[in-house]
Amino acid sequence: MKNSVDFYEFRNWFEKNRPNNFSGEGLKSLFEYLEQYEADCGTELDFDPIALCCEYTEYENIEEFQLNYDHERYPDKDSIMDSTQLIEVGMEGFIIQNF
Fold first, then answer.
1. Has this prediction a pTM greater than 0.90?
2. In this structure, are residues 95 and 86 in contact, taking their beta carbons and an 8 Å threshold?
3. φ/ψ (deg, to 5) at 97
4. Contact between residue 24 and residue 11 where contact means Cβ atoms under 8 Å apart
5. What angle do CA 60, 62, 64 make, to 5 degrees?
6. What ranges do the domains of the chain cover?
7. Does residue 96 contact residue 80 with C-beta atoms inside 8 Å?
8. How far apart are CA 80 and CA 90, in angstroms?
């Protein structure tokens, strides 16, 4: 049994239950990424927002990311993409799949 979730339901759930996990722009980027993933793989994903909160982290910029990860090993977004999925958010922000 699957439930379809549109962007507004997706965003509203996070804004109500986990308002500090992702920015508004980050939610839009993550939702679009997940929809594209479903289309590319030909499979539906279960909406499991707690798992998404555990699996993905949003960063405002590379400097914020480097507070958690080695700045010498990950000096830029390209080096991060060699290790994990990176979803662009605006000009400098991004979401990574935690690794």
1. yes
2. yes
3. -85, 120
4. yes
5. 60
6. 7-97
7. yes
8. 17
| DSSP for 61-94, written as a single string | SHHHHHTTS-TTT-SSHHHHHTTS-EEEETTTEE
Is residue 91 over pLDDT 90?
A: yes
The amino acid occupying position 67 is L
Q: Look at residues 64, 65, 58 and name the one whose alpha carbon lies nearest to residue 80.
A: 65
Q: What's the pLDDT score for residue 67?
A: 96
The CA–CA distances, whole Å, from 45 to 2, 14, 49, 67, 79 equal 9, 17, 11, 31, 28
Report d(CA 82, CA 79) in Å as an integer: 5
Nearest to 27 by CA among 99, 74, 95, 86: 95
**pLDDT at residue 4, rounded to an integer:** 86
Exposed (0-12), middle (13-18) or buried (19+): which is 56, by Cβ within 10 Å?
A: buried
